[in-house]
Write a structure and sequence with these properties.
about 120 residues; alpha/beta; Ribosomal Protein L15, Chain: K, domain 2; 5-stranded parallel β-sheet; 5 helices; about 40% helix
Length: about 120
């Protein structure tokens, strides 16, 4: 039998919630994030801290539909939503006084989808 989709119950639940929020409301960002998280493991996004540092500015809100890795140095404050973080990434984010938030938190906040960048 061919395997389709993820076996991770946390990821399945997140994708379902993003789809529901995206179709019921006017926030297209949630539909896009659900689509990106549904992709195969090999196609899912992996972003290093150095890339976040190069491509962002102070105070931006960033979404990574995948994993953030700790290679590099972050020298400014950000608000980062991601599905998972490596230990090195969490240490770099904490050192830069940035916020590392779980992807589920984006649904709890009153986000309209504006001024948010998807990196990866």
């Amino acid at each position: 039998m061919k395997r389709t989709g993820t076996d991770n119950p946390k990821l399945k639940n997140l994708i379902d919630n993003l789809k529901k929020s995206g179709s019921s409301g006017s926030v297209l960002l949630f539909k896009r994030l659900a689509y990106d998280l549904e992709r195969s493991t090999r196609a899912r996004r992996i972003v290093n801290i150095s890339r976040l540092n190069r491509n962002t500015k102070e105070g931006e809100v960033i979404v990574v539909p995948g994993k953030v890795l700790g290679d590099g140095i972050l020298d400014h404050s950000l608000k980062i939503y991601a599905f998972s973080y490596s230990e090195g990434a969490l240490a770099s984010i904490k050192k830069a006084k940035a916020e590392a938030l779980e992807m589920e938190d984006i649904l709890k906040e009153n986000i309209k989808g504006k001024k948010i960048r998807i990196i990866g």
